[in-house]
Amino acid sequence: MCVIKTSLRYNSNSDQLADAFIQGAKESGNSVEEISLKDKNIAFCKGCLACLKSGECVIRDDANSITEQIKQADVIVWATPIYYYEKSGQMKVMIDRANSLYETDYQFRDVYLLSTAAENEDGVDHRAINGLKGWVACYPKSHFVGSVFAGGVDESNTIKDHPALKKAYEIGKAIQ
Fold first, then answer.
1. CATH number of the domain encompassing residue 130
2. Distance CA 107, CA 84 (A)
3. Over 90: is that where the pLDDT of 176 sits?
4. Are the C-beta atoms of 103 and 139 separated by less than 8 Å?
5. Using CA atoms, how far apart are residues 17 and 76, in angstroms rounded to an integer?
6. Phi first, then psi: what are they for 52, rounded to 5°?
7. Are 138 and 122 within 8 A, CB to CB?
8. Is the separation of the CB atoms in 111 and 145 below 8 Å?
9. CB contact at 8 A, 63 and 98
10. How far is Cα 16 from Cα 116, in angstroms, rounded to an integer?
11. Which of 14, 32, 63, 171 is within CB 3.0–4.6 Å of 116 for a Cys-Cys bond?
12. Which domain holds residue 30?
């Protein structure tokens, strides 16, 4: 299992949501690789499509090793803050840079989204979910399993007593 934290804030709400998921998954005996995009050097995709021929991106930065971890994992969990009703820019850039997986023997089957936002109304996470479903649709052996959204959290640690933490923990714990 690979949990990718995309927030650039330290001790962010989406990281804490991911930590709850990880705790549940580990308690069920799952092996979890945790990746934070914080302090990673990840350039924008150039759209050259050389990765489809070589199996890896021609840009030499941290995205290549992250992509390899994604390729080897059976479960992928993306954790992101929602900005302007969409996933974080760094999550989108990492998804784009993982294009080299398209024609490979990737292992991931189940994909989840964990997200947080200051806004708390219904539908805040719909664009992020649809964007991730678009990525998943490109990988026919995988499927989008579900999401956990924590709204009404903006400052660090405002997620502290949010019910989404328990939900993320329970979903992580249910993975076998």
1. 3.40.50.360
2. 32
3. no
4. no
5. 15
6. -70, -25
7. no
8. yes
9. yes
10. 10
11. 14
12. 2-174
Instruction: Report strand pairing: 2-5 vs 143-151.
Output: unpaired
C-alpha 61/C-alpha 46 separation (Å) is 13
The strands making up 110-117's β-sheet, listed across from edge to edge, are: 33-36, 2-5, 75-81, 110-117, 143-151
The b-or-e profile of 79-110 (16+ CB within 10 A means b, else e) is bbbbeeebbbebbbbbbbbbbbbeeeebbbeb
Q: Please tell me the distance from the alpha carbon of residue 145 to that of residue 142, in angstroms, as a whole number.
A: 9
The structure tokens listed for 26 are: 């580990």
Taking CA 117 as the corner, what is the angle to CA 111 and CA 120, rounded to the nearest 5 degrees? 110
- Dist CA 113 CA 8 (whole Å): 17
10-29 confidence digits (pLDDT tens): 989 999 999 999 999 999 99
Q: How far, in Å, CA of 42 to CA of 153, rounded?
A: 27
149: pLDDT strictly greater than 90: yes
CA distances from 54 to 96, 125, 132 (A): 16, 35, 25
Residue with tokens 């995009």: 37
pLDDT in tens, 114-141: 999 999 999 999 999 999 999 999 999 9
